[in-house]
Structure formats: C-alpha cells, structure tokens
TrEMBL record:
Residues 1-191 form the Protein kinase domain. PANTHER family: SERINE/THREONINE-PROTEIN KINASE. It is a lipid-anchor. InterPro entries: CDPK_Ser/Thr_kinases, Kinase-like_dom_sf, Prot_kinase_dom, Ser/Thr_kinase_AS. It catalyses: L-threonyl-[protein] + ATP = O-phospho-L-threonyl-[protein] + ADP + H(+); L-seryl-[protein] + ATP = O-phospho-L-seryl-[protein] + ADP + H(+). It comes from the Eukaryota. Its EC number is 2.7.11.1. Coiled coil: none annotated. Keywords: ATP-binding, Calcium, Kinase, Lipoprotein, Metal-binding, Myristate, Nucleotide-binding, Repeat, Serine/threonine-protein kinase, Transferase. GO terms for molecular function: ATP binding; metal ion binding; protein serine/threonine kinase activity. GO terms for cellular component: membrane. This is non-specific serine/threonine protein kinase. It is found in: Membrane.
Amino acid sequence: MFIFFYFFIRLCEGGELLDRILAKKDSRYTEKDAAIVVRQMLKVAAECHLHGLVHRDMKPENFLFKSTEENSPLKATDFGLSDFIEPGKKFHDIVGSAYYVAPEVLKRKSGPESDVWSIGVITYILLCGRRPFWDRTEDGIFREVLRNKPDFRRKPWPSISNSAKDFVKKLLVKDPHVRLTAAQALCMCFTLNF
C-alpha cells in the first residue's frame, strides 16, 4: 500500500528570501526584521517536527515571500528532500545544501535537529551578511562545519545584542542533543521581543 502526501503552496509573488537578503544594505537585516523572519521559519520547522517531518534542506532559496510587501508572510517551499522520521530514529544519508548542512548530517546521524542548525546558519547570515562557514569547495565547507565555530568577533557582531548572539550560538551548537529544538527556539528572547 502506498501513502501519498500532497503539499499545496499558494502563489508566492514576493520572491526568495535570498533575493531580499542580497537587496539589503550590506546584505544584513536589522535584529527586529531578522527576528520576524526567523520566527516564521521556526514555526514551519516546529510544525513539521511535531508531525514527524524533517525538511532537510532549509536555506534562503527555499523560503518565499507571499507578496512584494515588506512585511509579507514567508512560506517554506521545496520539500523534495523532506522525509518522515520516527522519534529516536536517525537519517543516514547526506542531503541538503553545503552552507546550511548540520554536523550530524555529515556524520550520517541526523534528525529534526538539522533543520534548526540550518535556521541558525540563516539567522547568522541575516544578522551579519556573511556565512558562518565558508570555503571554496564543498569538502572545505564540510570541514569548516565539523571543526570550527562561527566568528562573533568581526564587525558587525560587537554591535549586535547579546540576546541575538546567544540565540544564534544556541542554534549552532554542534551537538544536536544540546541544540535547541525549533519549539524551544521560539521561546527565546530574540524571537519573542519583536
């Protein structure tokens, strides 16, 4: 017996989150605007995880704005790599986009926590305009993800609130058992204050 799931996505005329990031001055969002966007992404992840679904490819290109208005709602798209997972089980394949892939994906032991990592990477980008892990090759990016921590010393991080920095750090914890869940992240000051 086959079970099919159909996802219906309304027409989104506002473009990709990536395009909006690139259109911003210094490719950065204000903390308030970043929190509004991140809260929407976390709500998607929390709802998916509640039903046992892991997106597995969260990145700015896979979030579309419903309209061109500045405060337009954000919609998640491209569930092509998503999969259902039972509690306590893990995925053993490497999927997703290099810049957003979680360490546990590279170790072939991933679950819903990997979506939260990806949202942490996106949040880092929204706040500072740079990727937290970078190299010229995919293998180099993977090494960076596994070995290094994001840099919070370079500009503009000294001028970003401790609440925002703490939030990003808690999403980018390498150990998925210690990392916040999407539901927990929604309760952090950074997502509640705006």
